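User: structure tokens for this one?
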Amino acid sequence: MNHLTNIAFIGNSLSRRCGIATFTTDLQQAVSKSSAHVATAIVAMTDHGHVYDYPPEVRLAIADDNRDDYIRAGDVLNVGNFDVACQQHEFGIFGGEDGDHIVALLS
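Assistant:
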């Protein structure tokens, strides 16, 4: 059985103030403290017209309405050899029709 070494969390992140941001940040912190052999990062969704002071755990931010940002994030995750992408979902986080921009990242 292979051990996971790189885990990415996709969703809102603190300093954005919302429940999913708190959950994603707490989950990333808990996993990163659970093993010395696991590296973690957050891919943070940034809602239209806002700027956040993200912590260092946020590897990159995606402007929710910019499909190219989703594609770039997928490339970053692939190059970074992430074993798992753990997506946090709530209606309205991801851009596009019914949030379909996230498909560009996941594909």
